[in-house]
Amino acid sequence: MTAESNSNGGQPQQVNLQQIAQQFMSGLQRHFDMLAFNLASREAVQEDRYNQRVNAPRIMPAAQRHQNFEQMQAYARDLLVRQVIGDSLNLIMTAMNNAHFFLALVKATSANKDVTPEAQKDAQAAQQAFIPAQIDEKFNRLEKDYGIMCELEDSIISIGLMMQILMQQGGIVKAAQIDGQGELAIELKSVESQNAGVVDGQAQGKLVDLRKVFREGEAVVFSDVELQLVLVSVASFADSLFKSVAKYARSIQDGA
Predict the structure, then answer these.
(1) pTM value?
(2) What is the pLDDT of residues 117-139, one digit of tens each?
(3) Pair 98, 246: CB distance under 8 Å
(4) What is the rounded CA–CA span in Å between residue 255 and residue 179?
(5) 3-state secondary structure of 172
(6) CA 256, CA 247: separation in Å to the nearest integer?
(7) CA-based angle 46:49:53, to the nearest 5?
(8) CA of 117: how far to CAs of 71, 114, 120, 130, 134, in Å?
């Protein structure tokens, strides 16, 4: 599925939804692989090797503030959680912005590859208004303007709240982040059975939702596997979003 844009003011530039989706998933896989590498590296590091590396230059910037192995393990763990949640949120925003740009072009042109200056202006105006919107408002606009209901919407919003908690509240959930049931919940995509086979990195079992709940006063913590499943859940969200965008484009074409 393609649309065209002449946003550079010259020749129309083709926007290929399949290419956008493939590039996004490739980038997401690199994040997943890097996380696996970091987790494996952390498991392998030993205290004596850490101390050897610390003392290798025979000088420190502020030796009196040096942290020991256990302290650095905890710090590195907290940093990794913030990084994964932050990267996930950035990836989600990128997927939504890219999807919206395609949708805006399709709507403005009625899925016609011939882009008029008026249609181009309308699409650009819609995109400029969409990009700075908060994540919950992005979901609202996708539903209102294009009839797209996003899978895992509540969990994606929870990821945004968790980033706020990690960056501004020392990782502790406060009353402002919990719902009417006193929970801050996220649904992670997981494989139904640990005994399910894996072929070429793809699970052969059924994907199910693994619900993780935080309550007021609790710290936002994830196990190693849960951190990996956060990225898997982002992939599930993006895949569903891009499929919904393609369905919308087909509906406009069929109705034209």
Answers:
(1) 0.87
(2) 888 889 999 999 999 999 999 99
(3) no
(4) 41
(5) strand
(6) 14
(7) 140
(8) 59, 10, 5, 20, 29
